[in-house]
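Quick question about two entries, pasted in order.
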Amino acid sequence: MLNTAVLTSVASIGILAVAGAWSRPVDRLGWRPVPSGLQRALTDCRGPLYNRYDEGGYLIWFVREKKVFIDSRQDPFPADMVQSHIRLEISGDYSEVFSRYHIGCALAAEGSPLAARLTSDGWHPASTGGAWTVFSREMNTP
């Protein structure tokens, strides 16, 4: 009986500690998976967002206000959409995909073919953070 009470108490304390840590990030840890400027640019983005497959999960968790274009869950996305995304990331040719999905802004990896193409086509870099840049069709005004 004593062992059960101790185990239950320790498990409860552990669950509460983990829940508390997840609900309120500890600033002193300095862990910012999505920098605040980048998060703000994504939240302020007008129109649907384009993002890479690799960043979709981060965005779902850390930028909850913005619906992602694609993420690493396979089931919700049709095969032709995933294949179009792969071709876009390899070539940088975004026009067909952006037109089909009415994309208003894009999260692109720095140095990627997409980032180079968006820059050359006059898209505005709204914010950069880490290895990413948010591009928009229009200049964001405060």
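Here is the second entry:
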Amino acid sequence: MTDTTERPPVTFAVIAYNQERYIREAIEGAFAQTYQPLEIILSDDGSPDRTYQIMQEMAAAYDGPHKVVLNRNEPNLGLVPHIDRVMELVSGEFIVVSAGDDISCPQRTEKMVTAWRQSAKNVTLVHSLAESIKDSGEYNWIRPPPERMMNKATSRDIIQYALHVVGATAGWDRRVFTEFGPLAPGLEIEDHIIPLRASFIGDLSFINEPLVKNRVGGMSFGGYGGVYDYLYTSGHRKRKWILETDEYILRRFFDLAFSGDAELKAICERRRDLFKVPVELAKAHRLGRILKLPFCLNMSLKHQSTQPVKDWAKYNFDWIYVPVRQALQKSANSRTSRDKARSEKQ
């Protein structure tokens, strides 16, 4: 019999939406976890494809040591409410989460729980490197979190520098939710706020090895694919997430923990205002962008920054800015390649 005093119950949750192409690998990674006692929750967010059917088939066929729980949300909730729903179902003291297009190594839970237990459970969040993989499963690169997050960042650090973890690698103490309640509403991603919550009640621990194969392009942010992408797609989403995070922090946490920290509040408000400008410009139609000039000028004056006016120009003259910027980048890349070739010859 497993000694649950020495080895506390842990939950491993696979959360998925429209990922029938990858969900088998994600579930196989969950079933292969070496830690016991382990509850595995397979949770589908109302997918219209066969994701949930595959979950059902694999759960029915499973005969291993772990307890398997199935859940399906109807209707679709979205990423953050989905995490909230899973946290209502967990029975473990520590929770490890995997996206439905990622693959966890068999020792992932064991290593994360070891870091948690060795701290006498003073650690409230554990994260790691991720091995970024392409859609095909090929190796892409090793994805680290921001450098400050590798060194026990404090809650003040997280807010001041807009820090986050690689969400695909995170696991947390159940208290991160029992202390603060659900995440929603007002968020589309969790990898800024969950570490902040964890830092209020304990320490963060970083494992300097990739424990997850993180597939770019599914639930993950895959970087920028060019100037247009920076303005309107991946770049816009990232700015929107930072804006939402700052609004959430100002709304929910300053009264709780930072009510007397005027300097930190000013940093958060400034970043919120400066990110609000490009986010609103990206969403506006052509005439609406032109009419935002007074708003941008006001933000420039308020924060003594030219960035809002520059953003106004970029979006209003994107038909010039995008090709010119692309040409400059191409020229810079060519110079770098020539310089590298010349250096190698020498």
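Reply: Residues 218-224 have pLDDT under 50 and may be disordered. The chain has two domains: 10-215, 227-321. Hope that helps.
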